[in-house]
Amino acid sequence: MKMNILRMIAVGIGIALFGCSDFLDKMPTGVEAEETFFITKDQCERAVTGCYDIPAWSGNGFPDCFLWMIGDIMSDDAQKGGETPADMSFLEELKHFKGKADNTISLNTWQQMYWAISRCNLVIQKVPAAPVSTELTAALKKRYVAEAKFVRGHCYFRLVTVFGGVPLVTKPIKPEDSRKARDSEEACWEQIIKDFTDAAADLPEQSETDVGRATSGAANAYLAKACIYTKKWAEAEAAAQKVKESNEYSLLPDYATIFTSAGQNGPESVFEWQHPHGPNNGWGNLNEGSTTPDFQGSRDGAWASGWGFDCPDSNLVNEFEDGDVRKAATIYGEGDTINKGTSCEEVVEYKNYRASPWCNRKTLKECWATAPEMSNWPYNKRLIRYADVLLFLAEAQFEQGKTAEALENLNVVRTRAKLDALTTLDRDAIYHERRVELALEGHRFFDVIRQGRGEECFGKNGFDPSKDDGHLPIPQSEIDMNPLLKQNNY
Length: 490
Description:
single chain, mainly alpha, two-stranded antiparallel ribbon, 7% strand
């Protein structure tokens, strides 16, 4: 029997109390009843860890792939790629703004974000009532709730940027309450900003907690991002400034290192989804390790082999300035040598079908003595980097007329890229810097839409402002079960 997602929230209280994060390396312990749970520190901690699990799931159309499948492929940064244009045709539909209401990405985004929200809502409601003990202190309970609010804020951020206004569910609900109309986009943003504001107030700094957990810096970075999207420039500046003044983060000197295993959870990382490699994470269990390196690997060659998706577009290749070290760290193509100096060294060839002559170097597999199972790569997803925060800070300052301060922050990013500092600044320069700094990390489509430049940048692929607002269609299966949901234009 099928259920709509709000009904799933209501009845899905058997929590899989484990996660994919480095900070809690425990095997699944099964399903436990809500009524006898949320009593001990161990139970509360496992419940919180379960909140992190679903948004980091990997695999075909799972959240680990959402960013690049929408953020790259629907933008002018990349072509869909694959074996042929028909390979994963639902992505080709999105590329040309012809996505249907049964699109895999729409359905998986909607369902999995709400599944995660349901876990967060349980933690937010139940943990405050747990008995205080020497292990489960009042301060620790407060932190657990803040972590759940952080993850919930992330999930609603993903939903509102993909669909616009969605039903806001902030507490566990009963099945009979499961039909709910969409809240306004403005109301959704208010909830997102509130979740990140609350989380930032009660979370520790990065240096004070375990790797992989939400921190005050991550919450403030996300808060700045939410305020940028809603053009709350002063609030965005204040939140980003808190991240900068925390002195918890810095840019890695070598840009290319960021995207290697050595660069994971480094000083530039504000928040990453953790993707460990485990013995049971092969092709039949896609939820823990990352599938992205296989999706985006070249269809030619040996170690670089993959399925050839998310191929950089010439529009992006030509965007890089001469001397920008980020170009070689972002893109590789025919004739380039990869894994140089290792036993996996190879010169890239261009023989099989490829949507463009290039591939994404940021997801290139490194040379290890023994490779993990197929689609089980221990590469984390960098959701927010410090460079992203600096560029948000520069944008917020520029929009308030603080050009000198904006130039200072933007030029820190350019200097690391071995480029000359700018002496004048306009919006185009800020947009350019965001594009090349964050290229092929899943940000471009969402940036362009929030900037109101959809027709300018995506018109050649079919973006029509008379019917497109940058939102995907609501899954038809959800509308069929909840007639109160109104469909987007598409």
